[in-house]
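User: These chains co-purify. Model them together.
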Amino acid sequence: GDSVTQMEGPVTLSEEAFLTINCTYTATGYPSLFWYVQYPGEGLQLLLKATKADDKGSNKGFEATYRKETTSFHLEKGSVQVSDSAVYFCALSSGGYQKVTFGTGTKLQVIP
Amino acid sequence: DAGVIQSPRHEVTEMGQEVTLRCKPISGHNSLFWYRQTMMRGLELLIYFNNNVPIDDSGMPEDRFSAKMPNASFSTLKIQPSEPRDSAVYFCASSLTERGLAVDNEQFFGPGTRLTVL
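Assistant: Joint model of the two components:
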Protein backbone atom coordinates (compact mmCIF):
# COMPACT_ATOMS: atom_id res chain seq x y z
CA GLY A 1 0.00 0.00 0.00
CA ASP A 2 0.90 3.67 -0.06
CA SER A 3 3.28 4.98 2.57
CA VAL A 4 5.21 8.12 3.46
CA THR A 5 8.43 8.23 5.47
CA GLN A 6 9.73 11.47 6.84
CA MET A 7 12.62 12.30 9.09
CA GLU A 8 12.23 12.03 12.82
CA GLY A 9 11.99 15.17 14.84
CA PRO A 10 12.19 17.36 16.63
CA VAL A 11 14.34 19.61 14.54
CA THR A 12 15.72 22.65 16.34
CA LEU A 13 17.21 25.50 14.33
CA SER A 14 18.30 29.03 14.98
CA GLU A 15 16.46 31.82 13.22
CA GLU A 16 17.69 32.38 9.63
CA ALA A 17 19.13 28.87 9.38
CA PHE A 18 18.52 26.65 6.36
CA LEU A 19 15.85 23.99 6.71
CA THR A 20 15.56 20.58 5.09
CA ILE A 21 12.99 17.99 6.10
CA ASN A 22 13.36 14.75 4.19
CA CYS A 23 10.40 12.83 2.82
CA THR A 24 10.27 9.68 0.71
CA TYR A 25 7.23 7.78 -0.46
CA THR A 26 5.96 4.48 -1.81
CA ALA A 27 2.91 4.51 -4.03
CA THR A 28 1.30 2.89 -7.02
CA GLY A 29 0.88 4.97 -10.12
CA TYR A 30 1.61 8.68 -10.10
CA PRO A 31 0.65 10.26 -6.80
CA SER A 32 0.20 13.89 -5.97
CA LEU A 33 2.49 15.04 -3.16
CA PHE A 34 1.86 17.52 -0.40
CA TRP A 35 3.32 19.24 2.60
CA TYR A 36 0.87 20.19 5.33
CA VAL A 37 1.69 22.31 8.38
CA GLN A 38 0.09 22.19 11.80
CA TYR A 39 0.54 25.13 14.16
CA PRO A 40 -0.01 24.54 17.88
CA GLY A 41 -3.66 24.00 18.74
CA GLU A 42 -4.81 24.08 15.12
CA GLY A 43 -5.75 21.68 12.36
CA LEU A 44 -3.52 20.87 9.43
CA GLN A 45 -3.35 23.28 6.51
CA LEU A 46 -1.88 22.79 3.08
CA LEU A 47 1.54 24.39 2.68
CA LEU A 48 2.41 23.35 -0.87
CA LYS A 49 1.79 20.62 -3.40
CA ALA A 50 3.10 19.07 -6.61
CA THR A 51 1.05 16.90 -8.92
CA LYS A 52 3.60 15.47 -11.36
CA ALA A 53 7.25 14.58 -11.64
CA ASP A 54 9.73 17.50 -11.58
CA ASP A 55 7.06 19.94 -10.42
CA LYS A 56 8.17 22.34 -7.71
CA GLY A 57 5.67 23.43 -5.11
CA SER A 58 6.35 26.65 -3.24
CA ASN A 59 4.67 28.85 -0.66
CA LYS A 60 5.79 31.27 2.08
CA GLY A 61 9.45 30.68 1.19
CA PHE A 62 9.15 26.90 1.43
CA GLU A 63 9.87 24.71 -1.58
CA ALA A 64 9.73 21.03 -2.47
CA THR A 65 10.44 19.27 -5.77
CA TYR A 66 8.70 16.07 -6.89
CA ARG A 67 11.53 13.63 -7.64
CA LYS A 68 10.14 10.48 -9.20
CA GLU A 69 13.53 8.83 -9.69
CA THR A 70 14.28 8.99 -5.97
CA THR A 71 10.63 8.93 -4.81
CA SER A 72 11.30 11.97 -2.69
CA PHE A 73 9.68 15.32 -1.87
CA HIS A 74 12.03 17.07 0.53
CA LEU A 75 10.91 20.35 2.12
CA GLU A 76 13.36 23.27 2.14
CA LYS A 77 13.47 26.85 3.27
CA GLY A 78 16.46 29.11 2.98
CA SER A 79 15.94 31.16 6.15
CA VAL A 80 13.55 30.01 8.85
CA GLN A 81 11.74 32.29 11.26
CA VAL A 82 10.42 31.73 14.77
CA SER A 83 6.92 31.82 13.30
CA ASP A 84 7.74 28.69 11.25
CA SER A 85 7.76 26.60 14.42
CA ALA A 86 5.15 23.91 13.79
CA VAL A 87 4.71 20.27 12.85
CA TYR A 88 5.20 19.49 9.16
CA PHE A 89 3.52 16.51 7.48
CA CYS A 90 4.49 15.02 4.15
CA ALA A 91 1.59 13.35 2.37
CA LEU A 92 0.49 11.74 -0.87
CA SER A 93 -2.69 11.01 -2.71
CA SER A 94 -2.81 8.30 -5.35
CA GLY A 95 -6.39 7.22 -5.51
CA GLY A 96 -9.78 8.65 -6.09
CA TYR A 97 -11.86 10.50 -3.53
CA GLN A 98 -8.83 12.48 -2.37
CA LYS A 99 -7.74 9.83 0.11
CA VAL A 100 -4.46 11.13 1.55
CA THR A 101 -1.72 9.14 3.26
CA PHE A 102 0.22 11.19 5.82
CA GLY A 103 3.69 10.78 7.25
CA THR A 104 4.24 10.83 10.99
CA GLY A 105 5.08 14.53 11.09
CA THR A 106 8.28 16.40 11.94
CA LYS A 107 8.25 18.99 14.67
CA LEU A 108 10.29 22.10 13.89
CA GLN A 109 11.34 24.50 16.61
CA VAL A 110 13.04 27.74 15.62
CA ILE A 111 14.81 29.64 18.37
CA PRO A 112 15.67 33.33 18.21
CA ASP B 1 -16.27 30.92 4.06
CA ALA B 2 -16.19 29.81 7.70
CA GLY B 3 -14.09 26.75 6.98
CA VAL B 4 -14.68 23.34 8.49
CA ILE B 5 -16.46 23.64 11.82
CA GLN B 6 -16.10 21.08 14.58
CA SER B 7 -17.81 20.86 17.94
CA PRO B 8 -17.13 20.60 20.73
CA ARG B 9 -13.52 21.84 20.76
CA HIS B 10 -12.84 20.00 24.00
CA GLU B 11 -14.64 17.06 25.56
CA VAL B 12 -13.88 15.41 28.88
CA THR B 13 -15.89 12.35 29.76
CA GLU B 14 -15.74 9.26 31.88
CA MET B 15 -15.09 5.77 30.67
CA GLY B 16 -18.25 4.07 29.48
CA GLN B 17 -20.03 7.24 28.43
CA GLU B 18 -21.20 7.95 24.90
CA VAL B 19 -19.35 10.68 23.02
CA THR B 20 -20.58 12.43 19.88
CA LEU B 21 -18.32 14.63 17.80
CA ARG B 22 -19.78 16.90 15.15
CA CYS B 23 -18.52 18.33 11.90
CA LYS B 24 -19.82 20.81 9.35
CA PRO B 25 -17.81 20.68 6.11
CA ILE B 26 -17.15 23.59 3.82
CA SER B 27 -20.21 24.39 1.77
CA GLY B 28 -20.02 22.76 -1.66
CA HIS B 29 -17.46 20.13 -0.66
CA ASN B 30 -18.62 16.59 -1.26
CA SER B 31 -15.94 14.51 0.47
CA LEU B 32 -15.54 14.34 4.24
CA PHE B 33 -12.86 12.66 6.32
CA TRP B 34 -12.50 11.81 9.99
CA TYR B 35 -8.98 11.52 11.42
CA ARG B 36 -7.58 10.73 14.84
CA GLN B 37 -4.25 12.12 16.03
CA THR B 38 -2.24 10.75 18.94
CA MET B 39 1.39 11.01 19.93
CA MET B 40 1.85 7.26 19.63
CA ARG B 41 0.10 6.61 16.31
CA GLY B 42 0.26 9.96 14.57
CA LEU B 43 -2.55 10.91 12.19
CA GLU B 44 -4.89 8.06 11.29
CA LEU B 45 -7.73 8.13 8.78
CA LEU B 46 -10.81 6.61 10.38
CA ILE B 47 -13.44 6.91 7.66
CA TYR B 48 -14.33 8.98 4.66
CA PHE B 49 -17.52 9.84 2.82
CA ASN B 50 -18.22 10.91 -0.72
CA ASN B 51 -21.60 12.47 -1.48
CA ASN B 52 -22.75 11.41 2.00
CA VAL B 53 -21.93 7.74 1.35
CA PRO B 54 -19.22 5.98 3.40
CA ILE B 55 -16.49 4.89 0.99
CA ASP B 56 -13.91 3.37 3.30
CA ASP B 57 -14.31 2.71 7.00
CA SER B 58 -11.38 0.32 7.34
CA GLY B 59 -9.67 2.73 9.72
CA MET B 60 -12.44 2.64 12.29
CA PRO B 61 -10.80 0.94 15.25
CA GLU B 62 -13.70 -1.21 16.41
CA ASP B 63 -17.44 -1.49 16.70
CA ARG B 64 -17.54 1.11 19.43
CA PHE B 65 -16.93 3.72 16.74
CA SER B 66 -19.58 4.75 14.24
CA ALA B 67 -19.92 7.66 11.83
CA LYS B 68 -22.83 9.09 9.92
CA MET B 69 -23.39 11.75 7.32
CA PRO B 70 -27.13 12.33 7.05
CA ASN B 71 -26.72 15.26 4.67
CA ALA B 72 -24.07 17.23 2.84
CA SER B 73 -23.57 19.72 5.64
CA PHE B 74 -23.28 17.55 8.73
CA SER B 75 -21.45 14.50 10.01
CA THR B 76 -21.06 12.83 13.38
CA LEU B 77 -18.52 10.47 14.88
CA LYS B 78 -19.83 8.54 17.83
CA ILE B 79 -17.96 6.46 20.39
CA GLN B 80 -20.03 4.19 22.60
CA PRO B 81 -18.84 3.18 25.12
CA SER B 82 -15.77 5.37 25.37
CA GLU B 83 -12.48 4.12 26.82
CA PRO B 84 -9.36 5.96 28.06
CA ARG B 85 -7.40 4.78 24.99
CA ASP B 86 -9.80 6.78 22.82
CA SER B 87 -8.27 9.98 24.18
CA ALA B 88 -6.95 11.89 21.18
CA VAL B 89 -7.56 14.87 18.94
CA TYR B 90 -10.18 14.10 16.30
CA PHE B 91 -10.08 16.07 13.08
CA CYS B 92 -12.66 16.44 10.38
CA ALA B 93 -11.60 17.50 6.88
CA SER B 94 -13.46 18.15 3.65
CA SER B 95 -12.60 18.44 -0.03
CA LEU B 96 -14.20 18.71 -3.44
CA THR B 97 -14.20 15.76 -5.82
CA GLU B 98 -15.83 15.13 -9.17
CA ARG B 99 -16.61 11.61 -10.33
CA GLY B 100 -14.35 10.28 -7.60
CA LEU B 101 -11.33 12.38 -8.50
CA ALA B 102 -9.97 15.28 -6.50
CA VAL B 103 -10.60 18.67 -8.05
CA ASP B 104 -7.98 20.73 -6.31
CA ASN B 105 -6.00 18.12 -4.37
CA GLU B 106 -6.47 19.85 -1.06
CA GLN B 107 -8.15 18.77 2.13
CA PHE B 108 -9.36 21.49 4.48
CA PHE B 109 -9.11 20.61 8.13
CA GLY B 110 -11.19 21.74 11.03
CA PRO B 111 -9.60 22.84 14.32
CA GLY B 112 -10.16 19.44 15.92
CA THR B 113 -11.88 18.12 19.03
CA ARG B 114 -9.63 17.20 21.92
CA LEU B 115 -11.22 14.21 23.65
CA THR B 116 -10.16 13.08 27.09
CA VAL B 117 -11.68 9.91 28.51
CA LEU B 118 -11.02 9.47 32.21
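The longest strand of chain A covers residues 86-93.
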